[in-house]
Design a protein that fits this description.
Layout lengths: L2 H22 L6 E5 L2 E8 L2 E9 L5 E9 L2 E4 L3 E3 L4 E9 L5 E10 L2 E11 L3
Antiparallel strand pairs: 1-2, 2-3, 3-7, 4-5, 4-6, 4-8, 8-9
Length: 126
């Protein structure tokens, strides 16, 4: 093989590798995370978000509500007892803006007012 053929093969291999890597690094809208006693669960792929959920952590039970917001979404759950494995889910079923930050806040209702029980957030990006 001459040097031109080797150069072309090398460039082709580098291009194929770059396309493979760029496809593999595309981030998913799917994310999970917790802060204090509140967790967020985002179900989706790329910019497409199917649902956003909020739940308590292990031993994080409280009576109150969740507030899910960001990316054009602003929804409160019913006020009730929230125990582990109980989840408040917001259906989205659409693309959200790249860089949209989605957050779930837990608010405990006490005799002295509302007490924050954590804010967990996730960023939607591709």
């Amino acid at each position: 093989m001459n040097s031109k053929t080797l150069t072309r093969l090398a460039l082709g291999a580098v291009s194929a590798l770059a396309m493979t890597i760029s496809g593999a690094t595309a981030a998913s809208a799917g994310a999970n995370g917790c802060n204090q006693r509140t967790c967020i669960m985002v179900d989706g792929v790329g910019l497409r978000v199917e649902t956003i959920g909020a739940a308590t952590t292990w031993n994080g039970d409280f009576t109150g509500h969740f507030h899910i917001w960001g990316g054009g979404i602003d929804t409160n759950s019913p006020t009730q007892f929230w125990g582990y494995h109980q989840k408040f889910t917001v259906p989205v079923h659409r693309d959200l803006p790249n860089g949209a930050v989605l957050c779930a806040e837990g608010w405990e209702h006490t005799s002295s007012g509302l007490q924050a029980r954590g804010r967990a957030c996730a960023e939607v990006h591709f």
